[in-house]
Each structure stands twice: as C-alpha cells, then as structure tokens.
Amino acid sequence: MRVIGVDPGLTRCGIGVIEGTMGRMPKLVSFGVITTPAELDHAKRLLRIEEGLAEWFDGYHPDRVAIERVYADQNVISVMGTAQAAGLAMVAAAKRGLPVTLHTPTEVKAAITGSGRADKSQIGKMVAKILKLDAPPQPADAADAVALAICHFWRGAASDRIEAAMEKVKR
Questions:
Q1: What is the CATH number of the domain that holds 88?
Q2: Is the pLDDT of residue 8 over 90?
Q3: How many domains does the chain fold into?
Q4: pLDDT value at position 23?
Q5: pLDDT exceeds cutoff 60 at 165
Q6: Domain range spanning residue 152?
Q7: Looking at residue 161, what is its pLDDT?
Q8: Which of 7, 63, 73, 119 is catalytic?
C-alpha cells in the first residue's frame, strides 16, 4: 500500500509518501513541500498548490491519501488558507478515485510518538527512527506529512480491512 500524507498549508504544504505491507515497517518513498509566496495573489497561490498536488499524486500513484484535519480554536482567519489547501488535497484525491482519511494532529502525534502532546521536534525524530533515516525530513511540514502517512498506514489500514469485511457481510 502506498500512502500520501498531506500537511496542508497556504505557504508550505507538506507532502510525504510511504509504502509497505501490513505487518512490516513502511518505507519512505519521497517527501517535500509545495510552496507559495505570500505576495502572490491568493487565487494563484491556490492554483500553485493544486498543480503541485496533481504532480505528486500523478507521479507517485498512491492507494490512499491522509490529510491533517484542520482545526481552528481561536484565529479562524489564519486557518482559512490551511482549510483551503486541505480542500484542494481532497479534491485532487477524489478526481483520482482515491480514498481520503482525515487525521487530527493529536491522533498523528499519539500514533507516532505515543503522546498526543508531542512537539514538532519529537515527531521529526520519531519519523526518522521509524523509517530508519539519518535525520528527520526537512522542513518540519514535510516531516508532519510523512507522520500523517505513517499514522494512516498503521491506523487507516486496519479500518480499511474492517470496512471490507463489513461489505462482505452485507452481500
């Protein structure tokens, strides 16, 4: 199974690709960020993100897409661009018939580090350890995207198997 993780953002949209089979540790395929300059027109920034996502999806042919669930506690304005980038990732996946799962930051942190309160540094270190890398993916947005993909690989795959079994029972 190949999973693309997307850490949505308007300035930096992190992307991480892993693959593997159940019962084995996943392997890193690639990671990076789609960047847009703040001075660029907002609509053009979104277009660049959409084009970048299309390149990643079409270049790496994932089976599943894991996207960070956007949450706004106080500053709704700053979260709007992040939510728009998340929406673009969902649309890119839907256009390709790919299943999408949203994972909360706390869920990802707990899956990767064992603590839902882990900081970015701890996540990066654990991603490197899990994937047997010399150093965490950089920048942190890319490490977060890889963490999302790992989280889905571990948690989402189990949900996929349960859902498939339920479908068989219905038939």
A1: 3.30.420.10
A2: yes
A3: 1
A4: 85
A5: no
A6: 2-170
A7: 56
A8: 7
Catalytic site residue from 50, 73, 134, 141 = 141
Q: Is 7 known to be catalytic?
A: yes
For the question of residue 160 being annotated catalytic, the response is no
The three state secondary structure string of the chain is CEEEEEECCCCEEEEEEEECCCCCCCEEEEEEEEECCCCCCHHHHHHHHHHHHHHHHHHHCCCEEEEECCCCCCCHHHHHHHHHHHHHHHHHHHHCCCCEEEECHHHHHHHHHCCCCCCHHHHHHHHHHHHCCCCCCCCHHHHHHHHHHHHHHHHHHHHHHHHHHHHHHHC
Answer yes or no: is pLDDT of 119 > 80: yes
Active site residue 58: no
